[in-house]
């Protein structure tokens, strides 16, 4: 039998088809195992690269009133919505966020009164425009 025959070729005997199916199955298994090995190696490589970047950048910190003004907002554990809005506005540090008025923050895309209240509470800042924290229970 030559290497270019397939188990679906017409004119093969049952024994030849069975043999070819066995070889095709072994090739498929070997290909799958090779792909799985490459996938896992790549995943581990990417994981190590990410860990290296995170270690170089420093630990993530919870948003608290004690954060220094020069703390990059990318290292603070804000919600995704708040992070995206602050990044879109070009803000880089906690100090820049603290200097913004409520009106300027609410003017950011996808940044409403709830996000503002959350941000002000976590950073320990009073509202500059009188926006009160939203309550989760109906009144």
Walk me through the structure.
There is one protein chain. By secondary structure, this protein is an all-alpha fold. The longest helix has 44 residues. The chain has five helices and no strands.
What Rg is obtained from the alpha carbons, in whole angstroms?
A: 29 Å
Distance between the termini: 82 Å
Q: Which word captures the global form?
A: elongated
Count the DSSP helices: 5
* Coarse structural class: mainly alpha
The quaternary organization reads as single chain
Percent in helix = 40-55%
The string of secondary-structure elements, in order, is HHHHH
Quick one: how many beta strands?
Answer: 0
Query: Which regions contain 5 or more consecutive residues with pLDDT less than 50?
Result: 131-135
Strand content: under 5%
Largest sheet: none
* Overall average pLDDT: 83
Question: What keywords describe this structure?
Answer:
139 residues; mainly alpha; 54% helix; elongated
Secondary-structure topology with pairs:
Layout: H1 14-57, H2 80-88, H3 94-99, H4 102-106, H5 113-123
What is this entry, summarized?
The protein is an all-alpha fold and 139 residues long. The protein contains five helices and no strands. The model is unreliable at 131-135 (pLDDT under 50).
């Amino acid at each position: 039998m030559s290497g270019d025959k397939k188990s679906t070729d017409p004119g093969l005997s049952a024994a030849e088809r069975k043999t070819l199916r066995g070889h095709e199955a072994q090739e498929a298994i070997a290909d799958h195992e090779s792909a799985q090995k490459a996938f896992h190696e790549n995943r581990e490589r990417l994981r190590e690269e990410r860990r290296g970047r995170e270690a170089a950048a420093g630990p993530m910190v919870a948003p608290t009133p004690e954060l220094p003004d020069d703390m990059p907002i990318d290292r603070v554990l804000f919600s995704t919505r708040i992070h995206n809005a602050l990044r879109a506005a070009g803000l880089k540090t906690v100090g820049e966020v603290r200097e913004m008025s409520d009106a300027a923050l609410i003017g950011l895309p996808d940044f409403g009164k709830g996000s503002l209240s959350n941000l002000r509470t976590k950073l320990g800042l009073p509202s500059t425009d009188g926006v009160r924290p939203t309550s989760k229970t109906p009144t």
